[in-house]
Task: inverse folding
């Protein structure tokens, strides 16, 4: 609800403190063929496809590091774990845009930037 997080059971609702985001992406499966897509699994078992409804975006954390996040459901995000991020980078493609090089990943007909490649 808003900026707050709650743990909800059938009998109770507790406000909880979340340090970053409530979920972590722990696995990525890559499917290729007529419709290529990436399927993510969170630390609590949510399974979903990286697509327009579940976009990936990069956020700078203040230490000149860029962290990948994905929208899971109901405005709740997951941070992409380091091993999964490395899997994404290994499958990424390059593009050049106005003299800068970027890497991106494609899934379900959408492209998601992973960041700029330093020269």
Result:
């Amino acid at each position: 609800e808003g900026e707050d997080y709650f743990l909800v059971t059938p009998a109770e609702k507790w406000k909880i403190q979340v340090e970053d985001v409530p979920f972590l992406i722990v696995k990525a499966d890559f499917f290729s063929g007529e419709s290529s897509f990436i399927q993510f699994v969170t630390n609590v078992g949510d399974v979903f496809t990286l697509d327009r409804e579940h976009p990936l975006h990069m956020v700078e954390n203040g230490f000149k590091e860029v962290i990948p996040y994905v929208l899971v459901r109901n405005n709740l995000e997951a941070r992409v774990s380091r091993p999964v991020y490395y899997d994404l980078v290994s499958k990424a493609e390059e593009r050049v845009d106005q003299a800068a090089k970027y890497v991106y990943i494609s899934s379900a007909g959408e492209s998601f930037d992973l960041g700029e490649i330093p020269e």
Summary: Residues 82-91 form the longest helix (10 residues). The longest strand covers residues 23-31. The chain has a mean pLDDT of 89.
